[in-house]
Design a protein that fits this description.
Layout lengths: L5 E6 L5 H9 L16 E6 H14 L8 E6 L10 E2 L2 E2 L3 E7 L6 H13 L3 E6 L15 H5 L4 H20 L4 E3 L10 E5 L8 H15 L1 H4 L8 E10 L3 E10 L1 E3 L3 E6 L2 E6 L2 E5 L12 E4 L1 E3 L2 E6 L11 E4 L5 H12 L7 E5 L2 H13 L4 E6 L4 H8 L10 E5 L5 H10 L2 E5 L2 H26 L4 E12 L4 E12 L4 E3 L5 E10 L2 E3 L2 E2 L3 E6 L13 E4 L3 H9 L7 H20 L1
Parallel strand pairs: 1-3, 1-6, 6-7, 7-9, 8-9, 20-21, 20-22, 22-23
Antiparallel strand pairs: 2-3, 4-5, 10-11, 10-19, 11-18, 12-17, 13-14, 13-19, 15-16, 15-18, 24-25, 24-31, 25-29, 25-30, 26-27, 26-31, 27-28, 27-30
């Protein structure tokens, strides 16, 4: 039999993914999520008759015959790592809709989503959303973009062309050839861009038609399933339902599940099994996460589908786990291997706590892309043990002495230990915010380290004593200088070009105000103890900061990023001066 294709809707935060599905479903799922952003994957089925109703005139015009049973949409969170539900060996997504706000073009998470699509070789369509926000756009009573466009003023059509041209250019820079859908000459080589408005519905007809048409034309073999095969799916969410107890929301992507089947799934203790007592489906155009009054009971479910599974024994099931009918003789190995893969950790790294396996996997992928190690991953609250584990890493790598907590709580004794040890716990219930906050924390740590390093390092500097600028001859000597290259700071030891040491800088002032540093081009007053002006130093003398050969090598090879090209040249001169003076002496 042919199953309905699984369509993943993805893109940057606030570009209108859920709103687009809301337009199709005539629902308001977006308003129920944390921050208005979908955080846990939801499944919605759009039956063939709905597709036909919306696309009717277009289907007739193009003489298209859609035979797939419908479309299963999976709405994803804003960040790219959650945009593909994982199955062993690849993605369960057959096709993706990449939603782009046409008024903003591509943004960071759009690029991240495209990278995943490229990695998994998942075909996709770009939905260029929010065309209604263009100046002068007039809403038309149609679901068709082409029909609406023909009724827009010439200047509005020109503005749309300009924005599409920019979008095509950005997609090209990212490695994708693209064009407006009605101008695509080879659909296997070009990405189709379909302008839409989630707010008005314009363009929805073309979007649904192309999704259905592409799925049917190019994915027919992939969509063939044997309904007698044991069912396998992914647990989206675990929840307690009135009258049902603990239930599992599942996306079934292969085979069939039946009432009274025994299914296997992951728990924190390993692989567990339970018997299905009831299978419950969302009514057409409704959503798995909605109330049970909008659902109905069935005896079996075949892929691809979203289904609520009820039965005793699901209390410890981990959301994000595979759920497999035990009619599959390899079920235990399948789940154990998946758990080993998801919870694999590094020898060194941060500590990650989250609410589901899916969250762990998603955040792990994001951190891997930033070369961040994870020494410990687990589901549940942040504990005192987690804080102590993070504290043990501070001595070897301060950047790893942190805990990321996604959509989970912090135990009281863990919070107290965090405050006592200074271990940071970064907590968020929106994935992109958790990662962004972590990046900000890292940046802040590096900034502090750099400030400490700059205070401890001696940088190359070259100064010239200004003529007729001696304010005091000694105790201390005070005179005017110009920084000819590099920088100069209080406590720096100065020398002449022949290697003779002059003394240390006591203080730097500019118009009577103390300065911690003077850089190239600045003219300031300098004071030095144990120096008599006219003896050790005089007008027009050129002095250099003294840096040991070892410190020069450290600057050159370990901290070169803190030096300008001119600094590096001066550093080489200082190294040569040190070498020459050692030989001569």
């Amino acid at each position: 039999m042919i199953r309905q294709p699984i369509i993943t809707v993805m893109g940057h935060v606030d570009h209108g993914k859920t709103s687009l599905l809301d337009r199709i479903r005539s629902s308001t799922i977006a308003s129920k999520e944390a921050g208005g952003i979908t955080q846990h994957i939801g499944a919605s089925e759009v039956p063939l008759d709905v597709v036909t109703k919306i696309c009717g005139p277009l289907l007739k015009k193009m003489n298209a015959n859609i035979t797939i049973p419908g479309l299963l949409f999976i709405d994803t969170p804003g960040h790219e790592a959650f945009t593909n539900l994982r199955k062993r060996g690849g993605s369960i997504s057959d096709l993706a809709i990449l939603v782009v706000d046409i008024t903003k073009n591509l943004e960071p998470q759009t690029y991240e989503a495209m990278n995943i699509l490229k990695e998994y070789k998942t075909p996709f369509i770009v939905a260029a959303n929010k065309i209604d926000l263009m100046t002068g756009w007039r809403k038309q009573d149609t679901y068709s973009f082409i029909e609406s466009l023909s009724k827009q003023a010439p200047n509005v059509q020109e503005e749309l062309e300009s924005k599409l041209y920019m979008l095509v250019g950005k997609l090209s820079e990212a490695g994708f050839s693209s064009e407006r859908f009605d101008r695509v000459t080879d659909i296997t080589k070009e990405v189709s861009i379909i302008p839409v408005s989630a707010k008005t519905g314009e363009g929805i007809a073309e979007l649904l038609m192309y999704v259905a048409g592409l799925s049917q034309r190019f994915l027919e073999k992939r969509l063939e399933i044997d309904k007698e095969e044991p069912g396998i799916g992914s647990i989206i969410e675990k929840k307690e339902e009135k009258g049902l107890g603990i239930t599992l929301d599942v996306i079934l992507y292969n085979g069939t599940l039946n009432v009274n089947d025994t299914v296997a799934f992951a728990t924190s203790a390993g692989v567990a099994t339970a018997k299905i007592r009831a299978l419950i489906r969302p009514r057409p155009l409704r959503e798995l996460r909605e109330s049970s009054s909008k659902l109905y009971y069935v005896d079996f479910v075949s892929a691809a589908a979203g289904v609520k599974v009820s039965g005793s024994g699901f209390d410890d099931a981990l959301p994000g786990s595979l759920i497999i009918s035990t009619r599959n003789p390899n079920y235990e190995n399948e789940i154990s291997s998946e758990l080993a893969e998801v919870f694999a950790s590094d020898k060194a790294g941060i500590i990650l706590k989250a609410d589901t396996i899916g969250s762990i996997e998603a955040i792990s992928k994001l951190l891997k892309s930033t070369n961040t190690g994870i020494s410990k991953k687990s589901i549940g609250k942040v504990t005192k043990r987690d804080v102590l584990d993070a504290f043990s890493m501070r001595a070897t790598d301060p950047h790893n002495a942190v805990i990321l907590a996604f959509n989970t709580q912090i135990e009281d004794d863990a919070l107290a230990e965090s405050q006592a040890t200074g271990i940071e716990i970064i907590k968020a219930d929106i994935i992109y915010k958790l990662i962004d906050d972590y990046k900000l924390w890292i940046d802040d740590q590096k900034k502090r380290e750099k400030e400490l390093l700059e205070r401890s390092l001696v940088f190359p500097g070259k100064i010239k004593i200004l003529p007729n600028s001696c304010f005091r001859v000694s105790h201390p000597a005070v005179f005017g200088i110009e920084v000819a290259a590099g920088r100069i700071k209080p406590s720096y030891l100065l020398m002449k070009e022949d290697g003779d040491m002059v003394g240390r800088v006591k203080e730097i002032q500019d118009n009577g105000i103390g300065k911690q540093e003077a850089k190239k081009g600045e003219s300031v007053a300098m004071s030095m103890e144990d120096v008599t002006f006219g003896r050790q130093i005089k007008d027009n003398d050129v002095l250099y900061t003294f840096i040991s050969s070892e410190d020069i090598r450290n600057l050159k090879y370990k901290h070169a990023d803190m030096l300008t090209e001119e600094d590096k040249d001066l550093l080489e001169k200082l190294y040569e001066m040190n070498s020459k003076n050692r030989i001569e002496k």
